[in-house]
Amino acid sequence: MSFDSTAQLADFVRVVLPYLDPDDWSKELHELTPRAEQQLFILYAMLLIGYHSDPSVEGLSRDLCFKFGFVASRGLEGEKVLPCLYQTLISKYSFKEFWTAFQSNTLIALMDANGLKEERKRIQYLDAFLEMKPGDWCPSVWHLRLFMHTADVDPPRHITIDYRFFNCNTVEEKFALEDVYEGLLNSPEVDPMELHAACIKGKLHDFACWYRPNLEQRFEWLMKNTYSLSMEN
User: Is the dihedral angle over the CA atoms 83, 148, 126, 209 positive or is it negative?
Assistant: First the structure.
C-alpha cells in the first residue's frame, strides 16, 4: 500500500506515538523540527502500518524516499530489502536513537552493529548514500531514479540537462526516453553509477545500446550530448 492522502494521518500518529519521547506526544506532525524529523515520523508510520513510501506523492513521501536511500540500489533490490532493515532497527531503538543515527550519518554503523551488514550490502550503494552529509555532491542518477517513480511529465532542470530531456520536442519523446532509463535502472544487470559515468562522458546512447541493442535509431539523437560537462552534476 502507499500513502496517498492525509486521511491516514490519525493512524500514523497512533502507531508512532509510543516510539516518541514524552515531550513530543502532544505535538502535531508539522511541529516536529527540523523537517527531516517529520520525514522520519512518516517513515516509521509507513513501515509500522505496512504502507510503502510512494514517490509519486508530492511532499514528505517523495522526500523520504530519497533521503532514506530507497533510490540507492541496483534494480529494485532496495525497495525489497530496505524496509526490512529499517523495521529491524525500529524494533530495537527509540525514535530519538534512530533520528540521532540518521542525523549523524551512522545508520550504516547501526545496521552493522545489529548483524545486518550482509543484508544491507545487497543494496549496492546504500552505505555511500546514507553517509553523504548535507552539501556533499550527490550523483544525479539518484535524482533520475526518483523521477522515474513519479507521475511528473517534466523532470527537474538538472535531470533535464544531464540526461538529455532537453533534446525532446514532444511529450511522447519525453515518455519514450523516460521508458529507456526506467528499463535500465530497474534491471539488476545495470549499475546506476555506470549509467551516471556514461552521462558524464556523453556516452548515454552507447551505454543504452549495450543493454538494449535493438534500441530505436531516434534515441541516438535524443541522448546526444550537445554540451560539455566540466564537472559531475
Answer: positive
Taking the alpha carbons of 22, 109, 69, 144 in that order, is the dihedral positive or negative?
positive
The answer to whether the beta carbons of residues 39 and 152 sit under 8 Å apart is no
Using CA atoms, how far apart are residues 192 and 171, in angstroms rounded to an integer?
25
Does residue 145 contact residue 185 with C-beta atoms inside 8 Å?
yes
Residue 19 reports pLDDT greater than 90: no
DSSP letter at 141 equals: H
DSSP state of 164: T
What's the pLDDT tens digit per position in 215-229?
Answer: 999 999 999 976 545
Better pLDDT: 69 or 27: 69
CA-CA distances (angstroms) from residue 168 to 176, 177, 180, 186, 222? Answer: 9, 8, 13, 22, 6
